[in-house]
Amino acid sequence: MAGKLILARHHESEWNKLGKWTGLRDRHLTEYGFEKSGDMGLLIKDLRVDCAFASMQVRSIETLSCMLNVCERYQVPTVHSAALNERDYGEYTGKNKWEMEQILGEEEFRNLRRSWDHPIPGGESLEKVSERTVPFFLEKILPLVVEGKNVLVVAHGNSLRTVIKYIEKLSDDAIADVEMPFGAIIIYDVDDQGHMLNKEVRQTQSSVPA
């Protein structure tokens, strides 16, 4: 019997709080981010966690650590991989999102943030991100789920969106309307190809200006 795939986004980082595009820049969780990461752990306390994955970025690692500690899952084997890192925002890294919305205009701003193949100067489109996340999911994560392990993956808004697109077989247009919210846990049952059989969403109340 296959296991569960559990997806979680890191909680509020120092730059999330400031409304800045963080991308590949490493920034720690805020005090609120640590607190809410603990709350996210409580959401899965009823589930067995056999192994866990996180990106190489500290906000993801800190969120995972908080979740496992709250669950009292102290011996869970954990793998960190750059394949799960956030999207590279290139020239927009460190810029305030809401100031850039005024400069770029509403349509360009939405395309930049949400669309599948919209280019970013010096950065990655969502499609480009998927070229590293989806193969990693299929090669490293999915086999563990198929063999019956419950696998927790803590990563980033955009890296998780690309995995969700694959799992749910979403179109390039449909992914624009998909967001991985702060404080949410998605629990999937998947087939041996990694496609969705069942989906459960658990949510802790969160308020993040990002």
Helix vs. strand class: alpha/beta
Order of strands in the sheet with most strands = 3-2-4-1-5-6
Q: Which whole number gives the mean pLDDT? A: 95
CATH superfamily: Phosphoglycerate mutase-like
What is shown here, in short?
With 210 residues, the chain is α/β, with parallel strands linked by helices.
Structure description:
With 210 residues, the protein is α/β, with parallel strands linked by helices. The chain is 39% helix and 15% strand. It is built from seven helices and six strands; from the N terminus they run E-H-H-E-H-E-H-H-H-E-H-E-E. The chain has a single domain, classed as Phosphoglycerate mutase-like (Rossmann fold, 3-Layer(aba) Sandwich). The protein is globular, with a radius of gyration of 16 Å. The chain has a six-stranded mixed β-sheet with strand order 3-2-4-1-5-6. Helix 6 packs across helix 7.
Question: Secondary-structure map with pairings?
Answer:
Layout: E1 5-9, H1 14-18, H2 31-43, E2 51-54, H3 58-70, E3 78-80, H4 97-104, H5 106-114, H6 126-146, E4 151-155, H7 157-168, E5 184-190, E6 196-203
Parallel strand pairs: 1-4, 2-3, 2-4
Antiparallel strand pairs: 1-5, 5-6
Question: What would the keywords be for this entry?
Answer:
210 residues; alpha/beta; Rossmann fold; 7 helices
